[in-house]
Amino acid sequence: MEKFCKQYTIWSETGESEGRPGREDKMSDAAIEVKAAGKPVPVDDTITLEALTRDPYPIYKRLRAETPVVRVPKMNRILLTKWADTKYVKDNPQIFSSNDPITPMHRAFRAHTLMRKDGEAHKCERMAMQGAFSPKVITQDWVPRYEQVAEEYLDRLPRDEVVDLFPMLAAPYAARGLAVLLGTEEASDEEMIRWSQALIDGAGNFGEDEAIFARSEAANDEMDALFTRIEARHREHPNNSAFSVMLNAENPIPLSQIWANIKIAIGGGINEPRDALCTILYGLLSNPDQLERVKANGDWVKAFEEGVRWVAPISVSGRYVLEDTEIRGYHIPAHSTVMTIQASANWDEEVFEDGHLFKVYRESNPHQSFGNGPHFCQGTHVARRAVGQVMLPRIFEKFPNIRLAGDVEWKGWGFRGPINLPVLLG
Ligand code: HEM
């Protein structure tokens, strides 16, 4: 019998490995003891996904001031926009489960990934990958590789021409960095980017559009074929990549979950470093005084933190409410879904002065762009090093006269960032 994480067998048998919030299975609605009363949550039926995708920040500002806990019937969600509330929800997984049953994630990934699991089942799968994310491995294995990739990709850019850095640098650099970390280097940048987008679109396909699922299905087929091909290499030559670490563990998790969690990393590990890089570059290039100070002090990681605070690459997260509870005196019913809006938390007037401004040298920066609680982003340090420490200084060293050369368009709600970054490289 395959030897894997002993605990896993128990969860598999009880169905918990599917990530189902165990308590929900055992409780009928009638049996739920109403622990919280509270005022009814106010309703806002003016908010649309289109408006949030175009520019959510004026909406967040109004919500923080008027209705920080608000139900949006069109989205079937309760939105939370204050720093204290988004943190509270993520820090309390015993009430707010990560397994939001109304997302189409399972179909998009053909599996239940660690992102939608709770408790020990989540911990077991997260720890299975941890070897690839340790500070020592990042320093010894990944940073030198990222430096090579950064040099190589910067060398490909033409000088004295207007170049869109989004497709020409940010996306492929994020894709290659992820392929190195995961152990999927046989995949091209184009494949990694296409698969990532197909998974994201599938996971957000609330309208159940079959064409979108067809693309995520095709991407799953291609990824499954790749994982089958690379297994022998990782078994024969164990290394520190996430795939290899999981495969060669003493008590490996099931192969199906190894695949699932490599997929969640592909789905969630390209857009954010790509968008973070473009956002930070825009922030620095449109604030030359700050850029000069950052260059003089080598404060690239500080600039990174401010960029991800300013426009959070993952702006929202969903949590499924397991029991009746209260937030800010409002009644949050069991079985509802709350959305923690970290992008709004990062501009909360109670925590940040001038949150709408890019200010590298703000006094403190307790942003929530990497989340909170047990699902805190596992790639935080990798992203910080790859973007902040490796890429940013190299761009300005190679192109000291780089400047913005056109309008920049911003888009997205769940994932948000610039969708182009035209610059003149000199
Ligand atoms: C600037 C870059 C990044 C940002 C802003 C970011 C943001 C986030 C956020 C907000 C979460 C938590 C979601 C939730 O609470 O439901 C998360 C989770 C995660 N991130 Fe990142 N991420 C970044 C880069 C990366 C990279 C490069 C990887 C590499 C694989 C990665 C891997 C993960 C994983 C595996 C999780 C799930 C952790 C868990 O469920 O335990 N992230 N990320």
From TrEMBL:
Source organism superkingdom: Bacteria
UniProt-recorded Gene Ontology molecular function terms: heme binding; iron ion binding; monooxygenase activity; oxidoreductase activity, acting on paired donors, with incorporation or reduction of molecular oxygen
SUPFAM superfamilies xref list: Cytochrome P450
Gene3D superfamilies, per database record: Cytochrome P450
Pfam families associated with the record: p450
Extent of the signal sequence: none
Family per record: Belongs to the cytochrome P450 family.
Protein name per its UniProtKB record: Cytochrome P450
